[in-house]
Amino acid sequence: AITLCLGEMRHEMSGPERRDVLRFYDALQDFQTIFTVVALKYVLSITKTLSEGLQGKPLDMLHAVNDLPVLPVTLGEVKTNLDSHHQTWFTEAVALASKLQVHLLHPALLEPLSEHYRETISRVAVDHAIAEVTELFPERVIDAVRCLQVVPYVMSRTENNCVDVGLVSMFKEDLPDLASFPSEAQKWKAK
After folding, report:
1. Residue 87: CA atoms inside 13 Å, Cβ hemisphere, count?
2. Considering only CA atoms, which of 79, 45, 1 is closest in space to residue 37?
3. For residues 45 and 34, what is the distance between their CA atoms, to the nearest angstrom?
4. How far apart are CA 143 and CA 153, in angstroms?
5. What pTM was computed for the model?
6. Would you say the C-alpha torsion 186, 187, 190, 191 has a positive or negative sign?
7. Among the four 1, 28, 94, 187, which has the fewest Cβ within 10 Å?
């Protein structure tokens, strides 16, 4: 549908808008772009739960962090079995390209093209996802986030049992309550 719309628009528009439409249309008619989109769809589907959880409510964030150690393992399995995953991605990209009427190489040349894309796109995408996850979330960060969940719980439980009630009440102001936590998290994201 997008290529049909862009195809119509490239005949109707002029000036810089036409140039932009032609560039976008040409990109969609390029098999490398199609394969890249398909490969990224699969790689990002693995990280989707983490991404949504980190952008969600506090409990969603906690679940996302708790599930985080599984993510590098899953991406590692994809890397280990990259040949079979890549073949699935390549087959889907070829089918999508034929639906979009993108001209492909002669069928005899598809195998070398597939091998090239496995090394230059598939492997790079998986390696990049693994590197990003391990760099952004080293074990010490995961441990720190897990420990933060303990603080509000302990503070809420010790208020009446603590010897130094003044100390607890002094720091109670620093703890976000459930109603103000989303706005506090938003302020931290802005910083």
Report:
1. 4
2. 45
3. 17
4. 17
5. 0.68
6. negative
7. 1
Structure tokens at 3: 């290529």
Give residue 77's Cα distance to chain centre: 17
Q: Token match 């496995």: residue?
A: 118
Residue 42, token pair as written in the block? 């699969």
Sign of the CA dihedral 41, 45, 50, 54? positive
Angle CA 52–73–48, to nearest 5: 15
Each residue's pLDDT tens digit, 19-73: 777 777 777 778 999 999 999 999 999 999 999 988 887 778 778 888 888 999 9
Question: In 3D, which of 72, 78, 110 has the Cα closest to residue 91?
Answer: 110
Nearest to 97 by CA among 29, 22, 170, 16: 29
3-state secondary structure the chain: CHHHHHHHHHHHCCCHHHHHHHHHHHHHCCHHHHHHHHHHHHHHHHHHHHHHHHCCCHHHHHHHHHHCCHHHHHHHHHHHCHHHHHHHHHHHHHHHHHHCCCCCCCHHHHHHHHHHHHHHHHHHHHHHHHHHHHHHCCHHHHHHHHHHCHHHHHHHHHCCCCCCHHHHHHHHCCCCCCCCHHHHHHHHHHC
